[in-house]
DNA sequence: TCGCTCTAGTTAGAGGGTCTAACCAGATCT
DNA sequence: AGATCTGGTTAGACCCTCTAACTAGAGCGA
């Protein structure tokens, strides 16, 4: 891609370059010791700078953290979106498995980032509100797939609550409509929330290493969970 | 209970008292700002002491953290155990719901503790190995309930892996047998692992505040998840 | 009851962290 | 070419964890 000539003055280019290097080094630190191990001082030293120099690039430590989280959401959303695109036209059950696998692959490939999105990374850390929008982008592709099913049994109560939520919150309604225009919104939403919880359940435990030494591959559990969800929502296999 | 006269010399009693106060103050800090906000210095000041005094009670900050985590597991195990006891003799489906509710009630009542058990609380923090045993005590009661079901569909592959795991790991086999002596161990284990993942999925998201402003009570989602699991494992309702 | 011991507390301080203030040198823009 | 803007510096205030050395007093045996 050609650089945008407006924003790519030599200074700007250099600045972006250094910012990227800082983020990379920060990720390396987090990979080694979790979010609280991130030290601007240490990052600076790793880049051959002194500590305070980094404050020219990130006003505070939390800003750097926020940006890493933002990037994490974007990567997850991209992975999900790719999986949805590559299975366009496939039966919904197959697409659900593809999305789940994409989610798990992304999370286990960058477990520290996953924990970053999940935990309380810093003493007074407050997730910025735009986080909600980014989380929605990750889950979006699920809406289109699960909107092709229908709720039954215990999921009916859940769907009723989703309907209530949709009625009271236009942006949510708009979000669902944009990803699943032809589906019943409450059904798509109920299925997606359930899928979200199951994905987080399996992947969250795996990322924390709680399946270590269990001698079972979490992929099997995730597959079973999604298969069961597909059954419960009546998703056609072919 | 009468104190054990061997271990309750006046000094010992005083020491235990202060330790308890430290833990309480530490929990208060964590409640306010998450695990990384825990500062021995601040705790000490809160108790009217100087910083280094606390090192007479806890060798390092992580030791305090570990003890809090230990207590957390114990509280969770007690909650689960209580729920199991109070529903002894009830139909398994009902007991499953009772266990799930107990788990969620405990977790949402002390969300900071739940996050403590889940996250990476400290830069180089290493969970002690006994953690595994304590986690097993939490999940134990589920074994007895879910051992009364049977796997079908996609859960069969999961059960096969559980059987493999059981064969290779005698302590796990012993754990399952102690909680579900009459059941097929692999079935009980497959059901329990699935329940664990679903509990963590729902409760983990709730505890992180991700359901905030969703206008739906997570209890509904959890109920639906457990109901679905009971269906999938063929647990009788009455 | 006397005196030894043991301990909960103290202060001092090393070393590291975030972040601000003040300053400097050189690249950029007019 | 000169004014400006910026990426870098050092100094330092204020946190933190944790160690070392010391003190005052409580507990305990004779």
Q: What are the main properties of this structure?
A:
mainly alpha, 10 helices, 238 residues, homodimer, Tetracycline Repressor, domain 2, disordered N terminus, Arc Repressor Mutant, subunit A, 0% strand, 2 domains, DNA-binding
Describe the protein in words.
The structure is a homodimer of 238-residue chains. With 238 residues, chain A is an all-alpha fold. Chain A has two domains: 7-59, Arc Repressor Mutant, subunit A; 62-232, Tetracycline Repressor, domain 2. Chain A contains ten helices and no strands. Chain A has helices at 10-33, 40-46, 61-86, 92-109, 111-118, 130-146, 155-168, 170-179, 185-207, 218-232. In chain A, α4 (92-109) runs antiparallel to α10. The longest helix of chain A is centred in the N-terminal third of the chain and has 26 residues, at 61-86. In chain A, 45% of the residues are buried. The model of chain A is unreliable at 1-6 (pLDDT under 50). Chains A and B meet through α7, α9 and α10 of A and α7, α9 and α10 of B. The structure holds a DNA duplex (30 and 30 nucleotides).
Note the topology:
2 copies of one chain form a homodimer.
Chain A: H1 10-33, H2 40-46, H3 61-86, H4 92-109, H5 111-118, H6 130-146, H7 155-168, H8 170-179, H9 185-207, H10 218-232
Helix pairs in contact in A: 1-2, 3-4, 3-5, 3-6, 4-6, 4-9, 4-10, 6-9, 7-9, 9-10
The structure holds a DNA duplex (30 and 30 nucleotides).
